[in-house]
Amino acid sequence: MDPLTARHLSHFLAAEQRRGRLPSVAAGIVRDGALAWSDAIGTVDGRADGGRSDTDTQYRMGSITKTFVAVAVLRLRDAGRLDLNDRFEAHVPGSRLGGATIAQLLSHDAGVQAETNGPWWERTPGGDWESLAASQVVQRFRAGRRFHYSNVGFGALGELVARAHGADWFDVIRRDLLEPLGMLRTTTRPSGKAGQGLAVHPFADVLLPEPEHDAGAMAPAGQLWTTIEDLARWAVFAGGDTGDVLAKDTLAEMYEPHVVNDNPGLPWTVAHGLGWQVWNIDGTRYAGHGGSMPGFLAGLRVDTSTGDGVVVMANATSGMGLVAPELLKAFVEREPRPVEPWHAQGDADVLDVVGMWHWGPSVTVAKVVGEHLVLGEPGQGRGSRFAVAGRDEWVGLDGYYTGEPLRLVRRPDGTVSHLDLASFRFTRTPYDPSADIPGGVDEAGWR
């Protein structure tokens, strides 16, 4: 990284620490599978003479914990241990949440109540799953109706993970995710150098320590502590470097928007996939999660197309603002990815399929872009990219044609007759009668 870029990012972080009156804040940028920049400003106790924060200081990640639980659930699915359409009741019987599916719990559209029925769970010790279920936590809305963020729902998913493995949910996370990724400073309680959770008075520069405890059955919703260095490894994972922990296709599936976070009067830019928040900002897709617990704030966001990402944590109950996306934006603007030079590397066989095609009277152009066949303009109408599935066969990757088959049909002599796309027929001329158009072509032709 250019020293001027690093200086700019550090200055931005310091300015945000002062603006937000954050006792301390730490951040990191990841690119190409590594921590490209990191810094920390402030002290762990918020006082001028306190211990300085650094990238090995632990903070609570809050709801970023949910992404670890979600990955553990998808690992069970990939192993054939469950189906995402299974009812929760099939794996964890005895609660009033049993009618919701696992997928609905992961994407926060199960309608499950947001918080517990007891005291504010984030500031008071929690009991076990049996006591949480016995407290009559319920579904506020019909499952599948709408987005309704639910901490209780992830408490339930943590119990599902625990029962499937016959072990504590965190023991599963540590064994299957943290240790393989080298995240050895991620724990359920503070260990080693850690920030004190603090509230800053809104009208005076004084501090109030926030409580820290074991949340019990609610721990899977926001219990974990971590460092910038550890969380950066999770951002690398989120950017697509999943190693042996998770199949890349499964991570991509988790990023598919399931339910929109609808705020009346505002454009739709945020949705939820399977345990991950996803953003669509001016056409760029991001994935990650925010986090907060009394005394702590956190954020993780990655560009799903490049893997560039940012992680930020602070020991304050409020005041961090949009530090994470603004840091990532500043980095990308000053350190654009190198442009790979173009080289001719195509196959002349594709000339049979590229060029102008007609679906009825409409005109569509097929071309090869990189490894994909592109029909029309993706994002416009039914334009889509297609991946090779065999000789003269492709499968759709975008929009209306996602998962649908495209086939180049040849005549007995090997010449091209037409394209068949999910039963739609594309011909080289409008309604070419020699292409066996379904329904036939008027014998008198165009007139």
Automatic annotation (TrEMBL):
One protein family per Pfam: Beta-lactamase
SUPFAM superfamilies: beta-lactamase/transpeptidase-like
InterPro entries tied to this protein: AmpC-like (IPR050491), Beta-lactam-related (IPR001466), Beta-lactam/transpept-like (IPR012338), DUF7586 (IPR056008)
The DUF7586 domain, residue ranges: 347-428
Matches recorded under Gene3D superfamilies: DD-peptidase/beta-lactamase superfamily
Residue ranges annotated for the Beta-lactamase-related domain, each copy included: 15-319
Protein name (database record): Beta-lactamase
UniProt lineage: Bacteria, Bacillati, Actinomycetota, Actinomycetes, Micrococcales
